[in-house]
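batch job 7 of whatever, protein = Metalloprotease TIKI
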Amino acid sequence: MFCLPGLSWIFLSALLHTVAPWGAHQPERPKQCDAPKSQSDMNSFLWRIKRAPPHPPSYLFGTIHVPYTRVWDFIPDRSKQAFHSSHNVFFELDLTDSLTILKLTSCQLLPHGENLQTLLPRDLYRRLKRHLDYVKHMMPYWMTADQRRRGLYADYLFNAIAGNWERKRPVWVMLMVNSLTEWDVRSRGTPVLDLFLAQEAERMGKVTGAGGALWRSSVTPSTGSTSLR
């Protein structure tokens, strides 16, 4: 999983600041909160598996399912070099396969006959519905000119992200709501990091595959891994 360096420290620092007595001495900000000054200071989330010569090493790279443009600049050069030099690349899921996408979509749904209105407390369900109505209203204002030139329209984008939301499992609804921001709507259509790497691997002629089995109840919704050889 890839995350911005120091994110947890920033949250903790902000939380403690709210309860500190007014006028209390503020300690110097921890170095973990500072942006990396060089590539060598960045956490690569890349593990190397050494093998006896003459076999080359293998690598395990942690990823996250967000638009690659959101994190690509924070991925260190050594991780990118390992990807480019590898002959075989294996992913958690084959996101280029339509059957995988179909199964992934299916596993998000509640069992037949169930819906969120019967599962969630009434007040929470009403808040969720009001928020989604607000997002649907704002969708035309959030779209980019490029999206419109490509023939996309607001209702299509909303349904692509939130369609059939009342039938989805709560954890997937939580992730859906998290992605219904102006920034995420504007970046809709940009491949997530896993898919971008898979497309790049195919373009470079690398051997690709998927190592994760897609089970109905055990799909990891937000993180993944990539194996490089």
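notes: The CA atoms of residues 75 and 81 lie 11 Å apart.
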